[in-house]
């Protein structure tokens, strides 16, 4: 008996009400223009219209979920899978056979293949690389020199992901190419997601050409990485070996396309999210010097005069709270989508089969109903005695359920280590022309953060 065949055909589902329609839609365009013009403000204001609200996106109806409890219910329910406009645009560009976009049995098999590389007891193996790259990052700053935080943050993110998971000899040139390709691809992809005007993106415009070139380079780089590993004849115990040796349900090796798509599906979310979060952490250390001082003091109290190391991370509780609070206010992943596989119920409302549902971790994590002084940067709200009052699912930057980010332990260890290493050595200030305004793309990041460092 399949799970589907026992799904109760609840007659009440048909009697459930239809969620209210969000205000401010335009004829024909619906709410799409608001998502283009002010996506964060628009998504945050949806909570004023209800727990579940309908949006009109051109001819389509999209459902938005606005409470922590319902985002948890959505992520944990078997009635939804990965789908919707975000994933369709990702699939078209990044590949259809990667873990981030697969569903059902394929997704379960792929998660089994990649999971060992991210298990909590595997992460310490990555400690030396994380330490080395954090230290190198801190050493690239010079007293008084201006640093472009976008490219530097990308470089750390790409190098750590590639060196830990693919054990590649990622020299600067390749990391640089990968970072450049990813930056351009992610920027263009967001536009293609919110304005899905297919033929428009075939026009011979410079930005479209740059996007096409970057996408081609990204795929070429991934092929290079795979070919290089095969040619080396080596099989280190890493994620790439796991992918190259993976078998499908019939016991046959998985196809070349799946291997390629899997590498893309792990490198792309891995670098963009970490890079964006590092940029926000740099912004936080600059804007809140009192917390930068506390992070530096904590690192000193734990590590003394030696540089802070991977093994120190779990003792860096204030640093960890700074990272969490930065991720609360500026979550890299600010919008998530699902598609209903059957007619179902959510929050007392009827959700038709095939409906697209969105929710915004950004809106949920800034909800004044969940957080006192919700816009204040207050890392101490994560102290155990205070965090117990925060509603369940009000802070799940890595999501929950079967699509939960496999890299939560990996990411938190790296982010805390980078933050402590930088703050122990430097104080930061923004230079003229720098902009820390929020730039909305596939992830959120500062528009153009340029900082000068002074030794501590
Ligand atoms: C999935 C957040 C870093 C690989 C996800 C999801 C979230 C997320 C929210 C779930 C998407 C959904 O529910 O639809 C983050 C954040 C990160 C981070 C906030 C860092 C600040 C990474 C890194 C890697 C990675 C470093 C790999 C090196 C993945 C993959 C998935 C995923 C492969 C797809 C999982 C699946 O669909 O089964 N991430 N992520 N992430 N993340 Fe991360």
UniProtKB/TrEMBL annotation:
Record-given protein name: Cytochrome P450
Binding site for heme: 405
Names of the cofactor(s): heme
Highest taxon of source: Bacteria
Matching PANTHER family: BIFUNCTIONAL ALBAFLAVENONE MONOOXYGENASE_TERPENE SYNTHASE, CYTOCHROME P450 FAMILY 4
Single GO MF annotation: iron ion binding
Key words, A-Z: Heme, Iron, Metal-binding, Monooxygenase, Oxidoreductase
Protein species of origin: Streptomyces triticiradicis
Homology family: Belongs to the cytochrome P450 family.
A Pfam match: p450
Upper lineage: Bacteria, Bacillati, Actinomycetota, Actinomycetes, Kitasatosporales
